[in-house]
TrEMBL record:
UniProt-recorded Gene Ontology molecular function terms: homoserine kinase activity
PROSITE patterns hit by this protein: GHMP_KINASES_ATP
Gene: thrB
Family matches, as Pfam families: GHMP_kinases_C, GHMP_kinases_N
SUPFAM superfamilies, sorted: GHMP Kinase, C-terminal domain, Ribosomal protein S5 domain 2-like
Pathway this chain belongs to: Amino-acid biosynthesis; L-threonine biosynthesis; L-threonine from L-aspartate: step 4/5
Protein name according to UniProt: Homoserine kinase
Organism: Saccharothrix hoggarensis
Similarity comment: family membership: Belongs to the GHMP kinase family. Homoserine kinase subfamily.
UniProt-annotated binding residues for ATP: P93, H94, A95, R96, G97, L98, G99, S100, S101, A102, A103
Length: 296
């Protein structure tokens, strides 16, 4: 077991938007909305303090997602801390399609790796993706920019792609929540071959559009793999995606919803689409991914 010389670490982790249209479970992009989590090593026990998003709902014992990820990662890297005081300042909305759960997991994994003196590597991504069941959000939160995620057998992989500076996300966040687990349950086990071919071409185009030519984003963000099946969970989201796209704005459901992701060429939404019930936030792409600093 690794002894812990540091008194602790402060982790700043970005949220993310996954899928980006047809890149279901394959594409993610880190966003400039961050949770800050302090991991203070103590002489014993566990204390969890949470403020901001989710503070009324998340547990404050060992079942807290950050604690679970930290403990799993500690076991992986052979880290043994006698006790832990966790202070979470959350800005990423929960259960809205902005990668809050992946960010929480990545924070825990990054803290354990840093306290053990280890760089984040493929084993860190593997662990985070196993928590999530898919690597799109986790890879984006870990490495920043655009992530392309895939699996090989039971191994999760990802590469980072540099986003084009003209990619200017606007997220439209409704007050209602939607659980990723629930809406994954709405997906069929098979899709028509025609829709699979439609998705492959759009997902490939999305990588080009996000990294080299944002003028292609309207076509690139068109989805048939998950949005139509999940529509009953968030009809207002579906209506807004449609009206934005009809107004020429590249738009898709963010992650498993119900937030809408828009990537307008100008960075501004045009007048017209009814945004009632949605909070409009201009949110830049996070380029650096999770950051870890020693506790002062
Ligand atoms: N910072 C956090 N601390 C503790 N638990 C969290 C945190 N963030 C998310 N969670 C847990 O994860 C749940 C939300 O996960 P879920 O996968 O449904 O949505 P999401 O990650 O916000 O969105 P998406 O996966 O579509 O991007 C919360 O209800 C909470 O239980
Ligand atoms: N690809 C995932 C992202 C949300 O976690 C989904 O759509 O279910």
């Amino acid at each position: 077991m690794t002894a812990v010389p540091a008194t602790g670490v402060r982790v700043t982790v970005p949220g993310s938007t996954a899928n980006l249209g047809s890149g279901f479970d394959a594409l993610g992009m880190a966003l400039g909305v961050h949770d800050e989590v302090e991991f203070a090593v103590t002489g014993g026990g566990l204390a969890v303090e949470v403020s901001g998003e989710g503070s009324a709902d998340v547990p404050t014992d060992g079942s807290h997602l950050v604690v679970r990820a930290f403990r799993a990662a500690s076991e992986l890297v052979g880290l043994d801390v006698p006790g832990l005081r966790l202070t979470c300042r959350n800005a990423i909305p929960h259960a809205r399609g902005l990668g809050s759960s992946a960010a929480a997991v990545v924070a825990g994994v990054a803290a354990a790796f840093a306290l053990a003196g280890r760089e984040l590597d493929t084993s860190a991504l593997q662990l985070a993706a196993e928590f999530e069941g898919h690597a799109d959000n986790a890879a984006a939160s870990m490495f920043g920019g655009v992530a392309i995620a895939w699996t090989h057998g039971d191994r999760f992989h990802a590469v980072r792609v540099e986003p084009h500076p003209g990619v200017s996300p606007v997220v439209l966040v409704p007050a209602v929540e939607s659980s990723t687990k629930t809406t994954r349950g709405l997906l069929p086990s098979k899709v028509p071959h025609e829709d699979a071919a439609f998705a492959v071409s759009r997902a490939a185009l999305a990588v080009h559009a996000l990294s080299a030519d944002p003028s292609r984003l309207l076509d690139a963000l068109d989805d048939r793999l998950h949005e139509p099946y999940r529509e009953p969970a968030w009809p207002a989201t579906t209506r807004l995606v449609r009206s934005l796209r009809e107004a020429g704005v590249p738009a898709a459901v963010s992650g498993a919803g119900p937030t809408v992701l828009a990537l307008p060429a100008s960075g501004e939404l045009p007048p017209g689409p009814d945004l009632t019930g949605f909070e409009v936030r201009r949110t830049p792409v996070d380029l650096g991914g999770v950051r870890v600093a020693p506790l002062g």
